[in-house]
Amino acid sequence: MLKLYYWPGYCSLGDQIALEWLNAEYELVKAGEELRHSAEYAELNPSRTVPVLITDDGFVLSQNVAILNFLAESFPDEHLNGDGSIRSKALVNRWLAYIAADVHKSFSPLLHPERIIGDDGSKQAILEQARKTLRSHFGVLNDQLKKNAWIAGPQRSVADPYLFVVLRWAHAVNVDLSDYDALGAFYLGLRNDPGVKTALAREKSGR
C-alpha cells in the first residue's frame, strides 16, 4: 500500500492518475496548510510541499517528477516510462522536465497573483505576459501531439498525467488554447479516461 500526500488542484493529481493507470493500491492523505507546516510533515519533506509518496516499507519521496519516475519504474510491466529502452525513457523525461521546469513554473503569477508586487497596471502586465508565455509553451506541446498520440510518443507515459494537470490549470486561468486542436483532443480523451475519472473523484472526496 502506497500513501500519497496531496492537495486538490495541485500537481499531485498527476501522481494519482499514474497510480490509477498502474492499478496500484494507495491511500490519500489530504495535506492542508496546517499539516504541511507541522514538524511531522517537515520530517517527510523539508520544503513542506505536496506531493509526497511513502511506500509500505517507509521510503519517502517528494517532487512530482521523481515520484512519477519511481512509480513507472516500480511497475515496469505497465510501460509508463517508455518501451524500456534508454532513449524511450529519456524522451519521457524530456517532456516531464519541460512540463515541470517551463510550463508549471510559468503558471506561478496566475496561480498566486497575491505574490505579485506592484500597482494594478504592472500586475496586469505580468499576468498577460504569463499567459503569452504559457500559450507559447502549449504551442510546443500541441505540435508534439500532432505527431504522436501521447506526449512522449506512441504510447502513454507518466508525462501524460502531468500534461493533463497543467491543461486543467490553463483552462482555469483563461489561457487561450482554443486553436490548439491536438491539445484539445488530448484533454478531452483524458477527461473520459476511467483512471482519470477515478482520480478526480477520489481527489474531490479525499478518499
Q: Beta-strand level of the residues, as a percent range?
A: 5-15%
Helix percentage: 55-70%
In which order are the strands of the major sheet placed?
2-1-3-4
Q: How many structural domains does the protein architecture include? A: 2
H/E series:
EHEHHEEHHHHHHH
* CATH hierarchy, class of the largest domain: Mainly Alpha
Mean residue pLDDT: 96
Report the radius of gyration as a whole number of Å: 17 Å
Shape: globular
Layout: helices, strands, pairs:
Layout: E1 2-6, H1 12-21, E2 26-30, H2 33-36, H3 39-44, E3 52-54, E4 60-62, H4 64-74, H5 86-106, H6 108-111, H7 120-147, H8 159-172, H9 181-191, H10 194-205
Parallel strand pairs: 1-2
Antiparallel strand pairs: 1-3, 3-4
Q: In summary, what is this structure?
A:
The chain is of the alpha+beta class. The chain has helices spanning 12-21, 33-36, 39-44, 64-74, 86-106, 108-111, 120-147, 159-172, 181-191, 194-205, and strands spanning 2-6, 26-30, 52-54, 60-62. It has a four-stranded mixed β-sheet with strand order 2-1-3-4, covered by helices on one side.
Describe this structure in words.
By secondary structure, this protein is of the alpha+beta class. It has two domains: 2-79 and 195-205, Glutaredoxin, CATH 3.40.30.10; 86-193, Glutathione S-transferase Yfyf (Class Pi), Chain A, domain 2. 58% of the residues lie in helices and 8% in strands. The protein has ten helices and four strands, in the order E-H-E-H-H-E-E-H-H-H-H-H-H-H. It has helices spanning 12-21, 33-36, 39-44, 64-74, 86-106, 108-111, 120-147, 159-172, 181-191, 194-205, and strands at residues 2-6, 26-30, 52-54, 60-62. Strands 2-1-3-4 form a four-stranded mixed sheet, with helices on one face. The mean pLDDT is 96.
